[in-house]
Specification:
- It is a single chain.
- The chain has 185 residues and is mainly α.
- Helix content is 86%, strand content 0%.
- Helix 4 packs parallel to helix 7.
- The protein is elongated and about 65 Å long.
- The protein starts with a helix and ends with a helix.
- The relative contact order is 0.18.
């Protein structure tokens, strides 16, 4: 069985866990995109009297949410790897190369995170367009019809998600390395 076929089989086998991971990454992407787009909506910020207080609290909330995303993603990936520990040990016992096992886990992460990122980004854009007016009305801002989708927001969210994917891959590498160390004794 090729590596790509094995990745698809494993994603289907652990569909419930992977769906939880997918939904978390998509929701995080959507919320982060919405937050950063709202932060840099000059029309909305200009209408608020307490601009500095609003921006500082929003930046703080944004940074806290990034750390929450990283921590929760780490925990979800950790629990998935623990569930799959015996399966991955069997791959090592079948004399599969450690690099193949690592490549398998990294491909699974890329498939899930890539699809979740695109899904979350598209939904974030729709959420931004649909709910900006409601948010502006609640905040008491008049005269703004929508928030623009900026390249800056897309780039910042892309960088954040790339970092999260890389951290997830490092986590997979450390997991495979720990299994290799267990087998060597």
């Amino acid at each position: 069985m090729s590596l790509c076929q094995l990745v698809r089989k494993n994603i289907r086998t652990f569909a419930a866990k992977r769906m939880k991971q997918f939904m978390w990454v998509a929701m995080s992407t959507m919320i982060l995109f919405f937050m950063i787009s709202l932060q840099f909506n000059e029309g909305a910020i200009g209408e608020l009297e307490t601009t500095l207080l609003f921006q500082m609290s929003f930046y703080m909330l944004f940074i806290v949410f990034i750390f929450i995303c990283i921590f929760t993603t780490y925990k979800i990936t950790f629990s998935l790897l623990q569930v799959r520990k015996e399966e991955i040990k069997s791959y090592v016992a079948e004399n599969r190369k450690i690099n193949d096992v690592l490549c398998l886990l990294c491909q699974e992460q890329l498939f899930i995170y890539g699809a979740a990122f695109v899904f979350g980004l598209v939904n974030g854009m729709l959420f931004l367009k649909l709910f900006t007016i409601i948010f502006m009305k609640i905040a008491g801002i008049q005269g703004i019809n929508s928030a623009p989708i900026t390249i800056y927001a897309i780039v910042v969210i892309s960088i954040i998600m790339i970092v999260i994917v890389l951290l997830s891959m490092i986590q997979c590498f450390r997991f495979v390395q720990s299994l290799q160390d267990e087998n060597s004794f």
